[in-house]
Amino acid sequence: MSDWMSKYTNPLSIYTDDAPNSSHIDAPPLKRDCIKACESNEVSCPNKECRHWMNHEEDLNCVLVAVEKNEAGMTLREIGERLNLSFVRVCQIEKGVLNKLNKKIQKPVSIK
Q: In whole angstroms, what is the distance from residue 78 CA to residue 99 CA?
């Protein structure tokens, strides 16, 4: 058993929602243990309770893997296919998020 697996008592505990800690904001992104385990064992993530889980085998059922594999970005249609949402619904979600961001940006900031 590898060193990183020895600290886990439950074999599925490597597939958790805990992100690795980084002490420095500018540090390069670290690959999570669960992604490493899935890649090394050539299996898709079995943890459907993880907030990053999605039903898309090509991306190991992980949103983080999908983002990593598509650094140039994905179209709204590709996102919809991965999340089993219609293109129209993905557009609606995008519009809502952009509206929220605009409201946050336009709010005056008071410094005390």
A: 22
Nearest Cα residue to 44 out of 66, 19, 75: 66
Structure tokens at 12: 């599925």
Kindly tell me the burial class for residue 53, based on how many C-beta atoms sit within 10 Å of its own C-beta (0-12, 13-18, 19 or more): buried
Q: What is the pLDDT of residues 86-97, one digit of tens each?
A: 999 999 999 999
Q: How far is CA 99 from the centre of its chain?
A: 22
Q: Are 14 and 33 in contact (CB under 8 A)?
A: yes
pLDDT in tens, 67-81: 888 889 899 999 999
The one-letter amino acid code at 111 reads I
Burial classification of residue 102, based on how many CB atoms lie within 10 Å of its CB (0-12 exposed, 13-18 middle, 19 or more buried): exposed
Residue found under tokens 């219609």: 86
Q: How far apart are CA 79 and CA 54, in angstroms?
A: 11
CA gap 110, 9 in Å, rounded: 49
Q: Is this structure's pTM higher than 0.70?
A: no
